[in-house]
Amino acid sequence: MRRGEAVVLVRQGGPGEEPFWALPGGVVDEGELVPEALVREVREETGLEVELPATLALVRQVDNRQPVQLVGGRPGGGYLVTIWLFEVGDWSGELGAQDPDGFVTEAQFVPVPEAVDRLRRTHWLEIAADYLEGRVAPGSLHFERWHEDGTIESIVNLTG
Hints:
Oligomer: single chain
Order of helices and strands: EEEHEEEEEEEHHEE
Structural class: alpha+beta
């Protein structure tokens, strides 16, 4: 979501986590389509009401085979996630975090250079920073496998 040369970022963090800045987003609920989740997550995290359609910016799929810490401190064996990044052209409402889960504590328009800096502080958000800088083509598809030894295998990088 852009306004002039600024984009919306949210500050978030779960219990015991260091808060970080990210683009608004979240998990697709059961029975929900991706565009419906986009509208709901943006509303919850920013107070803004997205008007569809939105333009697909990129898709990234990560097969993370590294051990991870799950909610409650339990160990986990990794995960498979698909990230959809959209450009949202139209919205209404007033900007302000309204997250019912309490993870998002702040929402603001941030100048693109500062947003890029904030996004680069979190490894899995670097591709969003690259997109904002024009280093990732709009409509591109990215498939990665993160191995237990820390290496990242890029299976396919396609441009739409």
